[in-house]
Structures are given as structure tokens and as C-alpha cells.
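User: C-alpha cells in, sequence out, please.
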């Protein structure tokens, strides 16, 4: 089969072609796994973190990609959940042990044996991939393959962030950074928390206007003060400044959720501006979001079908994955980027 493979980590300042387009062996599903013929795979910022070594794959070559929609092509000897031809989705969680304390307490995303699709196991930048059948999801009929793919990462993790924020209907929510995940959170809030007002912090005026069009009651620059204090703020930026700035806008006992797999170090020195009385005193909390559990993916897909949420997307051929990644690196974004096979 054809695949885009990562052979070593590299800086995207030095190369425009981190992935290699090549012929590799089609994988064979193990007993409880399925082989999926990939139709579409979303392109995610996390691929940049893998390529540049912020969350490195444990071995090479690795096939990235963790927002996959395709059809079941064959089933392992003991896999009975799906039929050949069924449409399935695959998300960031590729497997977890199933027996540890975390797996048994609805926190499989924290399992020490958590394996990520497209980092610890080969992902969807390829014509085929395998996944344990228990870690694949039926896709609601309202979505095309390309519409569903971006929901599997940005949507599921946005859903988890909102869950961890503890937001109650009527409480004020802040979003710092306004990319794919934050757009989806705004749509979920309007539906599930109709009396909650949303405040958006973004660097560009264009993003701030877009946020107001989508229903935010206020939008401003990262460092601004909101007209009222907020119960919870979700940060989806790769930087530190928004973290420090957000804390001063929280109510006593408020919670900041950091939804980022890794932060970049460029402005890390701004953490020295952290002022205990202004930023943390009065029981303010900071909590990160790690990975997703299957429950987040399942519940979010159902919610997205009900609302419905249909992401804007642009398509690239598999062999043009490098172009999509470089555009993402330089924030040339017109909707979610998805690789479409054949
Ligand atoms: Zn992702
Ligand atoms: Zn476990």
C-alpha cells in the first residue's frame, strides 16, 4: 500500500518534506483487530509535535494520522463487532490496557499503556491501517467521511475539555485561542449550556470578529480583561502568555483548562510574570487535558450529529500531506485539512 512515513524527527525550519511517500506492506489485523481501508484522514497540529519531537514516536518509521474514517476491509479471527464494508472512525486513543486502575475507573486516557494512533501505532496517512475493534466507532449517517474526520480529534478533545471544565448552565466560559477545537466548543456550549455566555480571546481581529459571528458575547486580545470574571476558561493555544493572562479573569475557585498536548517554549519566560495573589490565590485551579477516552469520542459524535456540527474542510491528496502540514505550521488555515485517499 501507499503511505506517508516519518523516518526521523526534524525541524520544519530545515525541511518542507518531513514525510516520505512510499510503498509499505499492508498491515494484517491481529485476532481482536480490524483492517480499515482509509477513506479520509484529518491533519492535526499534533503531527507537527510528533515530527518536531515534542511528543516523539517511540520507533521509526511511523505512519502518522489519528482522525481516520474508512471501511472495514477485513476482521481478525476473533473480531466480531463489525462486518466487512462497515464505516468506522478511529481517533487518538488506539488502545489501553483495560485492566489498570485508570482503565477501570473511566480514565483510560491516563493508562500507563495508553497507545496513540499515528504515534505509538501506525495511523491513517496510508491506504490501510489496523486498530483493535473495541477502539473503532460507527460514524453517524449525517456526516460524510470528510466531515466526520476532523470531529474525531478537535471535537472529541474539545468535548473532554468542556466536561473537565465543570461548566454549569448559566456560568460564563472563556476560550483563549480560537482554532478548530474552540469553534466546536462554542457550538457545543450554545446547544448544551444555552444560558452560558462565551468570551473569546484571540490574537487577530479576524478571529475575534469570527467568534462574535458564531455567538460569543465578547471577544478581545489575549491580554485584555473581560467585563466580568469567568467561571472557567479553556486554553487551546501552544503558548504560555494566554495561560498567565487568563488566570486574572477567573472568579475565585475558577478553573483554567489547558487543552494542549505540548506547549512550545518560545515565550516560556512569561511565566515569571505569574503573580500569586492576582493569578492563583482564592483557590483557582489549572488542569490539563490528556488524550481522549472512548467515551469522549462516542458522546461527541452523537452530540455533533444531533446539533448538527459539520466542519468546513479542504482536501489534499495523500502524497500532498507535507504541503498540508507546512500550511498548518504557518497557520494557513481555511477549515480543517483532510487527506483524501485515491
Ligand atoms: Zn489531533
Ligand atoms: Zn490501563
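Assistant: Sequence out:
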Amino acid at each position: 500500500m501507499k503511505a506517508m512515513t516519518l523516518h526521523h524527527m526534524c525541524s520544519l525550519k530545515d525541511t518542507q518534506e518531513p514525510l516520505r511517500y512510499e510503498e509499505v506492506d499492508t498491515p494484517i489485523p491481529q485476532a481482536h483487530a480490524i483492517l480499515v481501508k482509509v477513506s479520509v484522514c484529518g491533519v492535526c497540529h499534533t503531527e507537527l509535535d510528533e515530527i518536531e519531537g515534542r511528543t516523539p514516536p517511540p520507533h521509526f518509521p511511523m505512519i502518522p494520522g489519528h482522525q481516520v474514517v474508512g471501511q472495514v476491509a477485513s476482521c481478525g479471527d476473533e473480531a466480531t463487532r463489525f462486518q466487512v464494508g462497515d464505516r468506522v472512525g478511529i481517533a487518538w486513543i488506539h488502545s489501553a490496557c483495560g485492566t489498570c486502575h485508570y482503565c477501570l475507573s473511566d480514565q483510560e486516557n491516563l493508562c500507563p499503556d495508553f497507545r496513540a494512533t499515528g504515534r505509538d501505532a501506525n495511523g491513517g496517512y496510508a491506504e490501510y491501517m489496523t486498530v483493535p475493534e473495541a477502539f473503532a466507532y460507527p460514524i453517524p449517517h449525517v456526516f460524510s467521511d470528510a466531515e466526520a474526520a476532523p470531529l474525531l480529534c478537535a471535537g472529541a478533545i474539545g468535548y473532554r475539555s468542556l466536561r473537565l471544565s465543570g461548566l454549569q448552565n448559566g456560568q460564563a466560559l472563556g476560550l483563549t485561542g480560537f482554532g478548530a477545537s474552540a469553534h466546536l466548543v462554542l457550538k457545543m456550549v450554545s446547544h448544551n449550556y444555552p444560558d452560558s455566555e462565551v468570551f473569546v480571546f484571540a490574537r487577530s481581529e479576524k478571529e475575534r470578529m469570527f467568534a462574535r459571528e458564531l455567538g460569543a458575547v465578547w471577544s478581545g486580545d489575549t491580554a485584555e480583561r473581560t467585563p466580568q470574571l469567568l467561571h472557567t476558561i479553556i486554553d487551546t493555544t501552544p503558548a504560555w502568555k494566554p495561560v498567565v493572562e487568563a488566570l486574572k479573569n477567573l472568579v475565585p475557585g475558577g478553573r483554567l483548562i489547558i487543552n494542549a498536548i505540548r506547549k512550545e517554549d518560545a515565550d516560556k519566560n512569561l511565566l515569571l510574570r505569574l503573580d500569586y495573589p492576582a493569578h492563583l490565590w482564592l483557590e483557582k485551579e489549572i488542569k490539563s487535558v490528556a488524550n481522549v477516552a472512548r467515551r469522549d469520542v462516542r458522546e461527541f459524535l452523537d452530540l455533533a450529529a444531533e446539533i448538527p456540527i459539520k466542519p468546513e474542510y479542504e482536501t489534499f491528496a495523500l502524497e500532498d500531506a507535507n504541503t498540508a502540514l507546512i500550511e498548518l505550521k504557518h497557520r494557513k488555515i481555511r477549515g480543517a485539512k483532510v487527506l483524501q485517499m485515491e
